[in-house]
Predict the 3D structure of the following.
Amino acid sequence: MIHKFEVGQAVVPACPLRPSRNIYVIVKQLPLTSYEPQYWVQGMSNGVDCIVCESQIEAADDHQPSLWFTALEVSQTRAQSSRLP
């Protein structure tokens, strides 16, 4: 099995609970330990992070190129904060 999504990629829930689809960024690809790949994701608007299975997310629309730049900023900020003691 390989991961479908890359670190820094913007994703959305595959089956959102609300009409407005929150956007998340892939912070880390987790080791392959279950029946499908898993990811650590962080919300771009609220900063909430969680672990999700690949089937629970899908790529954000490519019609919003500004999301990629925002996603990279969130990913870099998160990576820098995880290096602090």
The first strand starts at residue 10 and ends at 13.
